[in-house]
Amino acid sequence: MLELQNLSRSYRGIPAIKNVSFRVDAGEIVGYLGANGSGKSTTVKIITGLLHPNDGQVLFEGKSIREDLVSFRAALGYVPEEAYIYTYLSGLEYLQLTGRLRGMPESLIRKKATRLLELLGLESWRHSPIFLYSKGMKQRVLIAAALMHDPRLLVFDEPLSGLDVVSSRLFKDLLQELAEQGKAILYISHVLEVVEQVCNRVVVLSRGNVLADAPPSELTRLMKLTTLEGAFAQLVQQQDTRVVAHQLVEIMKVDHA
Ligand SMILES: Nc1ncnc2c1ncn2[C@@H]1O[C@H](COP(=O)(O)OP(=O)(O)OP(=O)(O)O)[C@@H](O)[C@H]1O
């Protein structure tokens, strides 16, 4: 369904991603992992059409997304990492605006928006301005907004940030249900335990290069490790965090001995 072909992008001559290729098929949940600054957001901006690649292309159902960005966006549901949301609107108004921008009929907008807010536990807040919402509540509004138009492809960028235990569990179940309905899902997250539980495949990015593209269980098996977190740390050669933590505390104590 979604296919990234040899995407490269530099900022002022410095490469952010290099030859990134992978696909997300219908019914699949693909995790996109990488350390801070490895190029995940750059890739997502290219997929959502916000940024042009210097090289390569993004295909959706076999066609370049650039050929018809409007139809592609109609098939895309995107939950951004940061909630750049119109906070003076209420949750209901925000969903209504989203539905109108998607060209949905008013009666359907009202019905879907009300029900989605109810199911996400925001019913009693639906008329309150979003600036009164907590981080997790804003996140739930963004998730509802991404579902309004029944997209075929969903891109979730760190969707668990701010969600409490119950909402996180609901979200994991939602991902599975969406995949069962044949949606293609790209899931960007640093929460590797969840990625390991929900993703069919993970693509690991390091300094702009794809290092691995495999099911989590295969990665851990091949690397003779028990968790995805261990495999990830070894793949991207992360520093020994215990040593660094010790050094941080040592430097903190200087002059206070
Ligand atoms: N607008 C920009 N101008 C210059 N450099 C940029 C810009 N955006 C990103 N970069 C650089 O490109 C590289 C990849 O950044 P990107 O934001 O894609 O990484 P990321 O994997 O999403 O990181 P994080 O996990 O911290 O969100 C980094 O070195 C970053 O400094």
TrEMBL record:
Domain ABC transporter: 2-232
Keyword Transcription: no
One annotated GO molecular function: ATP binding
Protein name: ABC-2 type transport system ATP-binding protein
CDD domains the record matches: ABC_DR_subfamily_A (cd03230)
Organism lineage string: Bacteria, Pseudomonadati, Acidobacteriota, Terriglobia, Terriglobales
Keyword list, A-Z: ATP-binding, Nucleotide-binding, Transport
Pfam family membership, one: ABC_tran
Record has ATP-binding as a keyword: yes
